[in-house]
Amino acid sequence: MTRSAALLAFVLMSGCAAPPMQFYTLGAPAIAQNSGTLPASAPVLNVSHVTLPDYLDSQDILIRHGDQLDRSPNGRWGSRLSQGVTDLLAAHLGQDWPGYVVTTQPLAETPALRLAVNISRLDLDSSGQGALTADWALIPSDEHQPVQRGRGSFIAQGAVTTDSGKVALTRTLVEQLAARIASTSPRP
């Protein structure tokens, strides 16, 4: 009898299990880069690891309710958010600047250009409003060339009732940043 009761309890508890954990990326690997072959002398653009506020740089998918941050109960980023943002920026710049070899990896030699990005704000609120504020610097290896600096604020609206909606809204904001950097920075 106790065995039957234990089995019944197990079956009842398994029916109450939480949904499985889902992991999300910003989709950077799906973006084709440098479809043609580049000469060995092609300049290199190194995208440094993007910095984010500490409370955002985790695997938690967050939504803001005023001063409160709520974490998704069953959705997580596949890596720290800063890594996903870095990869997505590099992927877009690889498309937008086909004459450059764009990488996020450390290099043995000095790259022709280095991109440093600091995101000071990346918030999604419960109404579906997303906002991103960032500063960036494009730093040439030639010390006699000027550093090109930029700043931008971006907003977008989207559905945030699901984790996939939050991911899509975050991707939209980062893509707006990538487009601005690509349009205001020098090309080879």
TrEMBL record:
<feature type="domain" description="ABC-type transport auxiliary lipoprotein component">
    <location>
        <begin position="24"/>
        <end position="182"/>
    </location>
</feature>
<keyword id="KW-0732">Signal</keyword>
<dbReference type="InterPro" id="IPR005586">
    <property type="entry name" value="ABC_trans_aux"/>
</dbReference>
<protein>
    <recommendedName>
        <fullName>ABC-type transport auxiliary lipoprotein component domain-containing protein</fullName>
    </recommendedName>
</protein>
<feature type="signal peptide">
    <location>
        <begin position="1"/>
        <end position="17"/>
    </location>
</feature>
<dbReference type="Pfam" id="PF03886">
    <property type="entry name" value="ABC_trans_aux"/>
</dbReference>
